[in-house]
Design goal:
Layout: H1 12-25, H2 29-55, H3 59-68
Helix pairs in contact: 1-2
Amino acid sequence: MGKSNYALSAPESILTAARRAAKRDGVSLNQFINTALAEKVAALEAEEVFTHRAARADRARFLDVLERLGSEPPQAGDELDIG
């Protein structure tokens, strides 16, 4: 995996906050920025995947599957703990 450099121009207030966050996480500012960038890219790519999948969705088929599941109540141990 190759590396390249990029001159980052950011407002001082953001850099100050990023330095604090990096220190709190016990990492360098460079590592903090790389991780933040990777997280953002991953979120955008995931959004793209879900958008493409949603475009292929078929509501009628989904509702048909739900109808075929039946109406039995949950079995012991399957209840949701909402308390």
